[in-house]
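User: Quick sanity check before I run a bigger batch. Here is a single chain. Can you write out its predicted 3D structure?
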Amino acid sequence: MTSQERVIHSLESCPKNAKPAILTIGNFDGVHRGHQAVIERAHQIAEQQHAPLTVLTFSNHPASVLKPDLRLIPLCTNAYRYHLLAQCHADLIVAITFTRAFANQSAEEFLHSVNKHLPFSHLILGYDACIGKDRQGNREQVEAIANRWGFTLEYLEAQRLDDDIISSTRIRNLLQQGSLDEATHLLGRRPSYFGAATPGQGLGRTMGFPTLNLDVTGLCLPPYGVYAITANTPSGPHRGVANLGTAPTIRSDERILLEAFLFDCHQDIPPGDVEVFLHTFLRPEQKFANIDALKAQIACDVEAAQRQGFSSIRIEIEKGC
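Assistant: Done. Predicted structure follows.
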């Protein structure tokens, strides 16, 4: 089953399972190591109970409704988030729209509506999870509901690195600063982007460097520039080099693309999603005087990226939670 096939967008669409689900709830932006710990614990219980693991999340960030003036930049697209959750063994991903009416429910009202369509026996939450209006459904309130209703409730301790709590906000700051290695430790993987390759102008192919292009507009990004990369593609894993930015020498549309040239890839990549991992920053993006100057620099970038040492591409790319 593909990650897309595991996703539904309303509680009313939940399938009728033979056994109550093992449930976890959260936004899971970036599916970082803290999120992975929560989902892995839920997965352990699901295996013990021979029950389905369901992740309840949101197709829009709650902050877009609760704090509309706060411009929160996501670490990944919804499609990538669902893909990563599926890699973490989620059997079902329920991605509902967070609305003002939804936000006005009490914790008990919300959990009742969930349980009505998605019966659950265990609820696994992160250390700071609060449910319901104005985050009033704290641990004490949810424990009281669990005792009344008879489901098992478990909160995981905060996941830390270097004594600081792992969080999406911390990762965003590190990425924007260009601290790829530090972000990697918190994410549990290299910083990465995912999606269907978009068609380009074909200039890369005419220069001898055909690219796969991912539109990363609106996502949290490191500084624009050229990176050594690995990529997971429908034809398998590849090393390569990529430009992140607006490619000012050849484009004027201001669209932010990750344009990846893959080494040892002598045929067109079959249609499908591509996952690109950023390893090493090689140089800032720049505008060249002409195409010949750009072509010469790309050749130097390729040489620089090929000199980079990578651990096993397949192990890194294919590992799940």
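The domain at 189-318 is CATH 2.40.30.30 (Elongation Factor Tu (Ef-tu); domain 3).

User: Great, the batch can go ahead then.
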